[in-house]
Amino acid sequence: MNRMNVVLTAVAGLGFAGLTACSPADASDVTSAAKKAPAEATATAAKPDIDAAKDRARSNDRLARLDEPNTPIRPRGSAADAGLVAEGDKNFKAGKDYVVLKPSKRTSSPAGKVELTEVFMYQCPHCFSFEPFIESVLRNQPEEMNFVRLPAIFNNVAKLHAQAFYAAKSMGVWEELHTPFFQEIHTRRNLMPTEDKLLDFVAKQGIDRTKFKNAMKSFEVDSKVRDAMDLNTAYQIGSVPTLVINGKYVTSGAMVGNTQKLRDVVNYLIAKEAIAL
Asked: If pLDDT is split at 50, 70 and 90, which confidence band does 62 have?
């Protein structure tokens, strides 16, 4: 089996996007995201053990349309993994650069896959700003990595948006809705705080309003939302955007302070898991 060729790359022009975070307190005001976006928004990460960066996060309409080089950051192979882990053991510290979940939590990925989960929330301006970083991961996703998005559910609006997320997944229309959903909130300042406003938006995207509403209220979507809430608790999510590696490690831009270090920490933690495959 080929070892993981992790290819998280720094996003040109991303600046400090994703290095600040939205917390439940920030999300409690359902208009806060719309007030802060799309220009230069700041928020405070909620985790008590994190001195969150207060740099500006810049939302970008183009999202992943930045000219990002698709260059792997390290060679493929178990020896490279071992070297990366040895280097990471010296440079990064649990409790400072990442949190270790004890015991480790379940993942949804099949055997032989290292799961990288982004916990995000549509109403969070920093998650919107973090999209180019995530898109750089997806453009270079290695065979042994499985990427998962997990909605954070900090309030009723976030729960409604999570229902829309899973409904779109179930209908096979998520890819065409994801970016417009972010833009509707953070560029057009329409938070979509009610079901009717959300369905109005969906209909404008050419998706059947009634079918989408039925999907949102389905047993399948309800189960997935409940499962997401359970995982939010299990992963100890206190702010977003947050990255979870294989149900064992939690890190974020707010924790490490810059995108280069975030990339390095995630590569290190994924390599630790890749070695065990």
From this structure: very low
Answer for the pair 101, 35: CB distance below 8 angstroms, yes or no.
no
On the question of pLDDT at 50 being above 50, the answer is no
* Strand ranges for the chain from DSSP E: 40-41, 57-58, 99-100, 114-120, 145-151, 242-245, 249-251
The answer to whether the bond into 241 is cis (omega within 30° of 0) is yes
Least confident range from 4-18, 75-89, 119-133, 168-182: namely: 4-18
Question: What do you get for the CA distance between the two ends of the chain, in Å?
Answer: 9
Q: At what angle do helices 156-171 and 195-204 cross, to 10 degrees?
A: 30
State the Cα–Cα distance between residues 255 and 262, nearest whole angstrom: 9
Instruction: Retrieve residue 99's tokens.
Output: 């949190």
Position 64 pLDDT exceeds 70: no
How far apart (Å, rounded) are the C-alpha atoms in residues 147 and 6?
A: 12
Q: Which of 114, 14, 20 is nearest to 64 (CA)?
A: 14
- How distant, in Å, are the alpha carbons of 85, 114, 153, 207, 266 from that of 150? 27, 16, 9, 23, 17
pLDDT at 97 over 50: yes
Which residues neighbour 192 within 8 Å (Cβ) at sequence distance 6 or greater?
Answer: 157, 160, 161, 184, 185, 198, 201
Q: Is the peptide bond before 125 cis (omega within 30 degrees of 0)?
A: no
Convert the pLDDT of each residue in 234-259 to its tens digit: 999 999 999 999 999 999 999 999 88
Neighbouring-strand partners of residue 73: none
**Does residue 228 sit in helix, strand or coil?**
helix
